[in-house]
Write a structure and sequence with these properties.
mainly alpha, about 75% helix
Length: about 230
């Protein structure tokens, strides 16, 4: 491997490591936040929750219930970012795996290269752009606060499909598996790392702002204060 190729490989790995680190911190912090919020109604005067249950089935059911409750009342804005990042990662990974399999084996069952009747290959950045434009357009035009967190999922999927072929769009030719095609991976890692870092910094900055999440935390604090006064 020549020196430029080796340098490109290591730079891509470093970008990947940095983006994975930023996203791991973001998702980890979000999971802890959602878990703590989900436990509040059960441990502060609401429905009783036996956290000592050891049965695997019951423990799993309780965990799902806690996560669902925490997700439901947590900040919509922060959930939007987490959903977008998660859908981006999953889509990018699956897309790379599928394209590699198609290249090696020709396809996976019915999943093959899409072509028009004239034989023109349809690249996956096209449905990706349509999907992201549609999700973003609905979110902007109708401003539905509740569905925003769910619209972030197709938006992240679409952006991942577009960025996966960013090199093709820049070079105006199919360079997906060439050295120039590595630009798509590097760009995806860069966007993912920046998004994770900015989103985590924003979580810290917005901690304690008024809203449903803040109200639940204050209610839990008030409950604890009442318990102390009653002793």
């Amino acid at each position: 491997m020549t020196s430029p190729k080796r340098r490109l490989k290591w730079e891509t790995r470093l970008l990947g490591a940095a983006s994975v680190s930023a996203v791991t911190v973001l998702i980890g912090a979000s999971a802890v936040r959602i878990w703590r919020l989900g436990k509040l109604p059960f441990t502060h005067g609401g429905e009783g929750l036996d956290l000592s249950v050891k049965t695997p089935v019951k423990s799993t059911a309780l965990s799902v219930k806690i996560l669902y409750e925490g997700y439901r009342v947590s900040s919509t804005r922060e959930n939007v970012v987490v959903n977008m990042v998660a859908s981006f990662i999953v889509t990018f990974g699956i897309t790379r795996a599928i394209t590699h399999t198609i290249r090696v084996r020709g396809g996976i069952g019915p999943i093959k290269n899409m072509k028009t009747q004239s034989g023109r290959h349809i690249h996956h950045f096209i449905p990706g752009a349509i999907l992201s434009f549609a999700a973003g357009g609905v979110a902007i035009a109708f401003r539905p606060e509740g569905p925003d967190r769910y619209l972030a999922i197709p938006f992240g999927v679409g952006i991942a499909l577009v960025l996966d072929e960013a090199a093709l769009l820049l070079e105006l030719e199919d360079v997906y598996w060439s050295e120039e095609g590595a630009l798509s991976v590097r760009l995806a890692f860069t966007v993912l790392g920046l998004l994770g870092a900015v989103a985590y910094a924003n979580q810290i900055r917005r901690a304690g702002e008024p809203g449903t999440e803040y109200d639940w935390q204050q209610a839990a604090k008030a409950w604890d204060d009442l318990q102390l006064l009653g002793r």
